[in-house]
């Protein structure tokens, strides 16, 4: 049984995120849990953003990967709570993002108390280091980048544009 | 009752998402084009979560419940429960960002309050959506400041947008019988309680943006009625006509 469980997790570890294929859905914290239920497996997934268009593709990829790893029936459950956070992104995945030119999220997203009533800050607090040259002289070009989970930046030293994985 | 409340939450997201989609390919700059549609995508995703739950609640009471698509495509404007604010036209970019900010500022407060709902499903969706809405309000507030405290022309356009939209903010805080019953059972958020924190945040942003807060009290106050009761401006019918034409013409169409 233990070997089976490992096989399921290994298969999930082989499922790449459709929008950022260099990291797996396990490394991103999208695959939350695997449980033995009856004669099959229940895999719990959580979407990153409510409107993430990759959600259905991920589900299909998980089915395909598990069909190769196990003959037992697989049930996929989507859990919204607790809400996905970038805090769940594994250290190894952060290194991979950085190496691929995507600045990984900085700091902890955490849970914000009394979030709605918080006064709005108008200026970004901490600079995001350029993943290419490490410079802190970077500017935000757009609050959204190539996907909903990223913002678009430019480095004023090496002049390269880059994506920043937003803390969420 | 709960079904109606869920429609209010869902319809705001769907209608505003559809509006933001109208900027695809014609945003003032490419980055803004992408940003506006990403905000729309978040709102659409949230709307789907609310519709899915609404359909289940409907099934619980009526035996059968409508799907997300049926709720989106086969209700007329009088069946929609969104705020009048979100159905106001895109106009120029100041109009769009003023509408967005007034909504976002209310949305974060609402979702924050809904995190404490006794209905676990509502609390879960709200907690997830809140993280997205917080990001939205930072961006839209930035734009209100940038345009308000910008050139004479951008200031004039932002002030005009605020003046025109202000009357539609009243119903955000007006509690009717539907909401009252759900507030009393700990399921809905007390919209009236959102008014004070909303005002103080709006005051701070407008001060930074050198904008004047309108004093006209038309359609303000506890008795304000409108979109939440299905009484809409003509803009919603036009928006729905465009959004619904394909599935209504070819009801069996599949992607």
Topology overview:
The complex is a heterodimer of chains A (168) and B (255).
Chain A: H1 2-13, E1 31-37, E2 40-45, H2 55-69, E3 74-78, H3 91-99, E4 102-103, E5 138-142, E6 150-155, E7 161-165
Parallel strand pairs in A: 2-3, 4-7
Antiparallel strand pairs in A: 1-2, 5-6, 6-7
Helix pairs in contact in A: 1-2
Chain B: H1 2-21, H2 30-62, H3 68-73, H4 84-87, H5 93-114, H6 120-148, H7 152-165, H8 177-184, H9 195-208, H10 234-249
Give your account of this protein's structure:
The complex is a heterodimer of chains A (168) and B (255). Chain A is an alpha/beta fold. Chain A contains three helices and seven strands; from the N terminus they run αββαβαββββ. In chain A, the strands form two sheets. A four-stranded mixed beta sheet of chain A has the order 4-7-6-5. Chain A has a three-stranded mixed beta sheet with strand order 1-2-3, with helices on one face. In chain A, α1 packs across α2. The model of chain A has no long low-confidence stretch (mean pLDDT 89). Chain B is globular, with a radius of gyration of 18 Å. The relative contact order of chain B is 0.14. Chain B has 255 residues and is an all-alpha fold. The model of chain B has no long low-confidence stretch (mean pLDDT 96). In chain B, 65% of the residues lie in helices and 0% in strands. The A-B interface holds A 47, 49-53, 80-85, 109, 112, 114-117, 119-122, 141-145, 148, 152, 166, 168 and B 31-32, 34-35, 38-39, 41-46, 48-49, 108-113, 120, 123-125, 127-132, 134-135, 137-139, 141-142, 145, 194, 197, 201, 204-205, 208.
